[in-house]
Specification:
By secondary structure, this protein is α+β, with helices and mostly antiparallel strands. It folds into two domains: 27-70 and 81-159, no CATH class; 194-377, no CATH class. It contains nine helices and 15 strands. It has a six-stranded antiparallel β-sheet with strand order 11-10-9-8-7-13, with helices on both faces. A hairpin with a 2-residue loop joins β10 and β11.
């Protein structure tokens, strides 16, 4: 009897030790050091996509499809409540939802969270002030959204026993917002889910080589991966009244002119869609000012043809990235660029293209995320 009791006690103790020795997964803040480690790991056989990402506090997102679709507020039982009509979709992500890395650059990363039965892509941008990554874009039902009016912003965490809290000091030049240590060659973005490659084929009407590989790169100089038909289909999801024939002509011209100058047409087209509000802005469309250039003392703000408007945009991008173009530079504002040939990546472009670089970068990243996601869903 005593032996049975002793054996039972030993087995219970062993079971208890095994039960309570399961170590809780630690999470640390994702910061600049974390990104550097992820870039190093991606060059090894490490399974980076098995890392678990979480946010440190709950986040509720209302998806508004129109600017005027903010929830209606009414008074009921002496309280302010939301009307039941025209309620936007709402997704709640808490600090127990696991996320998996989708895309990674030097300044941002995209995490896929599974909420209920839906996958939600959240884009996180580097916050220099607090050395962390905070949410700024979302992909929901194949539509891109910019996260605004955030208070008490959550930060991204990753499963890790390694403390990446490295002290980093940034020295800024007055003419450019480039961290000194970042002026070396940038690592290109890595897409952790790769679409299947298909055979190349030519568009008979435009003689443009089309590539269905939709992996993304953040270099301005390079080859874009989006095809004209995929781009048009995505534009239609954002602007159902778009003139598809005109849109196709613009997109094909962008791809052609970008190929001539060696520019990544994905980036240029995303900028164009932002500047024209997905081809809705009648003023810019009629002026063929697809890049949204501000007028200068010697230029009134419009172009004589579709081709010249597109070419000016491509030339402006190449002036930033390489400093020179083939033949005469047709950008009316190229002479105003102080850091010609010094802006090689998308993240650096944000800091020099728009006054509010954070808002502009979030908008472009959201458009690119939508374009790539829509292209992947077509496979």
């Amino acid at each position: 009897m005593h032996n049975k009791i002793l054996i039972s006690i030993v087995l219970f103790c062993l079971f208890s030790v095994n039960l309570f020795s399961q170590e809780e997964i630690p999470y640390v803040k994702v910061n600049r050091g974390t990104i550097n480690m992820l870039h190093q790991l991606r060059n090894t056989d490490a399974e980076v996509n098995t890392l678990i990402f979480r946010i440190n506090k709950p986040l509720s997102i209302f998806f508004l499809d129109n600017n005027n679709s903010v929830p209606d507020i009414v008074i009921s039982n002496r309280m302010m409540v939301s009307s039941n009509e025209n309620q936007p979709d709402k997704i709640e992500i808490n600090n127990l939802h696991d996320g998996m890395i989708s895309r990674l650059t030097n300044e941002s990363l995209v995490i896929i969270f599974k909420v209920d039965i839906k996958n939600i892509e959240i884009g996180f941008r580097y916050n220099f002030k607090d050395d962390n990554f905070i949410p700024y874009t979302a992909m929901y039902n194949l539509k891109s959204y910019i996260l605004e009016n955030q208070t008490d912003i959550p930060q991204l965490m990753v499963s890790s026993k390694v403390n990446s809290g490295i002290n980093e000091i940034y020295a800024y030049r007055s003419s450019n917002i480039l961290p000194v240590q970042e002026t070396r060659n940038f690592l290109p973005e890595r897409t952790f889910y790769e679409p299947q490659r298909r055979n190349f084929h030519n568009d008979r009407n435009t003689n443009i080589t089309r590539n269905t590989n939709t992996s993304r790169t953040n270099y301005i100089m390079g080859t874009g991966s989006l095809t004209s038909d995929r781009i048009i289909n995505y534009i239609y999801t954002q602007n159902g009244n778009v003139n598809r024939s005109e849109a196709l002509q613009i997109i094909n011209t962008y791809i052609r002119e970008a190929q001539i100058e060696g520019i990544n047409h994905d980036i240029a087209i995303a900028q164009m869609l932002r500047a024209t509000n997905f081809l809705r802005d009648n003023n810019r469309m009629s002026a063929r000012n697809y890049a949204g250039f501000a007028p200068t003392e010697n230029w009134r703000g419009s172009f004589n043809s579709l081709e010249s408007g597109v070419r000016a945009h491509i030339h402006h991008l190449k002036t930033y990235a390489a400093g020179n173009v083939r033949g005469r530079n047709e950008s009316p504002r190229a002479h105003l660029i102080r850091n010609q040939g010094q802006v090689q990546t998308l993240e650096r472009l944000y800091t020099v293209w728009a006054e509010n670089s954070f808002e502009y970068g979030a908008a472009i990243d959201a458009i690119l995320a939508g374009l790539y996601r829509a292209s992947l869903s077509a496979f």
